[in-house]
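[recover] target loaded
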């Protein structure tokens, strides 16, 4: 659990509490440095949450999930060239709707340049990226209302936190063919989220 009090959502956590969450991730990574650490948060039953308290789950995989490395490079390059997809930024971190997002209001919080050491390297701004991702979740809630969501960390040189609000269901086209239907254009989503934050 992220905090000792009952908190159902990351949006209820203070910046200091969010920093402590990332500190716990870093401590687990340091304690078990081998393999690929996959960090994720399932928030709400529609996102697969197993508890009613806000919590992270950590899974050690033998290698990065297929497609993570290539997708990270492509997403980073595409996102930086599309300023109309930018939702918010802090020093060195950008929050943007990915140009090929497969879910409405999907967001990526990532460094604005590649960092060779990955998310857990000394000096990597993972805390800032997580805080910005949670800010994105607050913006999503202000646009569409409270909703289930998943957040996960893809580590590596092009590391990023991805936020996927669960506003619909995956049906036969998505599950069987791997073709996703996103009814909200990323430019429209970014504009709505920017307006919500103004």
């Amino acid at each position: 659990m992220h905090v000792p009090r009952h908190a159902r959502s990351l949006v209820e956590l203070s910046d200091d509490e969010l920093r402590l969450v990332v500190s716990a991730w870093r401590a687990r990574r340091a304690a078990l440095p081998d393999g690929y650490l996959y960090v994720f948060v399932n928030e709400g039953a529609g996102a697969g949450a197993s508890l009613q308290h806000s919590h992270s789950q950590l899974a050690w995989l033998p290698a990065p999930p297929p497609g993570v490395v290539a997708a990270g490079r492509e997403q980073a390059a595409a996102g930086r060239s599309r300023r109309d997809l930018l939702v918010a930024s802090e020093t060195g971190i950008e929050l943007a709707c990915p140009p090929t997002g497969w879910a409405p209001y999907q967001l990526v919080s990532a460094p604005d340049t590649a960092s060779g050491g990955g998310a857990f390297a000394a000096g990597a701004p993972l805390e800032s990226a997580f805080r910005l991702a949670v800010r994105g979740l607050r913006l999503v809630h202000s646009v569409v209302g409270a909703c289930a969501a998943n957040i996960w960390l893809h580590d590596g040189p092009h590391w990023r936190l991805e936020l996927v609000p669960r506003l619909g269901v995956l049906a036969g086209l998505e599950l069987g063919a791997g073709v996703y239907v996103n009814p909200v254009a990323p430019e429209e989503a970014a504009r709505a989220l920017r307006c919500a934050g103004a």
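[recover] notes: The chain has one domain: 10-197.
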